[in-house]
Amino acid sequence: MWLAAAALFVVAAGLLTAGSAEQVCRSCHAPQSKALSSSPHAGVRCYGCHLDDGAWGVPERKTAELAGMYPLALLGRGFEGAARLSSRSACLACHADISGRVTDSSGLRIDHDACAAESSSCDECHSMTAHGTSVRWRSKPVMEECTACHRARGATTRCESCHTQRNNSAGPPGPWQVTHGPNWQKLHGMGDLASCETCHEADFCKSCHGLSLPHGADFGVTHGNLAKQDPNGCIKCHRSSAFCDACHGAPMPHPSGFLRDHAKAAKGIEDPSCSRCHVQGDCADCHSKHVHPGGSFGVPAPRRHAS
User: Fold this and answer.
1) pTM of the predicted structure, to 2 decimals
2) 164: Cα separation from own chain's centroid
3) How do residues 208-256 score in pLDDT, each as one tens digit?
4) Displacement of CA 3 from its chain's centroid (Å)
5) Where are the alpha helices (DSSP H) in 154-292?
C-alpha cells in the first residue's frame, strides 16, 4: 500500500512539475501565447500572473489542473475552470506606482485608489493588456459604470475629469457608442437612462417624449392618467401592447366593450390583475350597490329602503 501511495505521489508530482512548464500552457493556449510574445508582458511567466493570491494559490491551482484540466484536455474538451483572472498582487508587484496618484492612459484619466476596489481583479478593466483580442472576455472601462459610481459618491461627472481627449470610437463599442451612434433614434433607449443626466439637462428628454425620463419612483401609480391624456405618448417607446399586458394581465387600455365582457377576465373582486389599478370600491359601486337577485357575487344584496 505504501509503495503504491509513493508511486502515485511520484507520478502526481511529475505531472504537476511538468505541467508548470510554459510549453504545456502554450500547447492549449497558442493564440494567447502568440499575443503575449508581442506585448509588454512578453517576459512574464504564465504562473507569474495566473496564480490566485494567498498561500492556497499554488495547491488550489494544481489540484484543479490535475483533477479537471488535464483529463479533459486528453479527451479534446475544454475546461472552464482553467480560465483564471490575473492575480491583483502580481499586477501591483510591477505596477505599484499607480497607487497614490492619477494616471493617464489612452486618453483616460483615472485614480486607481478611488476607482479600483481592493477586492477586484485588474482584469475587470484590463483583460486585453497582455493577450490582446485573443482573450475570451474583452473588457475596457465602461463609461456608464464610471458615471453611476461618481453620482453615487457625489463626485464630478464632467467629461474633462476623466477624459484627456475626445475619441468616441476608441476601443470596443460600449453602451454610449451604441446609444449615440448612427441609429441613435432607435437605440438610445437601450442604455441606462439614469446616465443621460451626466451630459443632458434633466428635462432634455421631455422635448421629444413629453415627460421626464427615466420615470420617477411613483410612475407605477401615476402613469394611468398620463396614458389617458396622451395615449400615443406611450407607444413612442413601448410599441407592443404586450408591454402593458404583461403587468396588467388584461388588454390596455381596455378596448371597446371590455366593461360588458370583463367578468370573463376578472377572477373575482380581489383579482390582483384588477386591484393593481382599481380599488375594491370600484367594483362595489356596480356589483354591490345595484340590486340584483341574490347579489352579483352570490351573496344577498343589501336591502334598499325607499326614501
Assistant:
1) 0.57
2) 27
3) 887 878 888 888 878 888 887 877 778 778 877 777 877 777 777 788 8
4) 54
5) 175-179, 184-187, 206-209, 219-229, 231-234, 241-248, 258-261, 272-275, 280-287
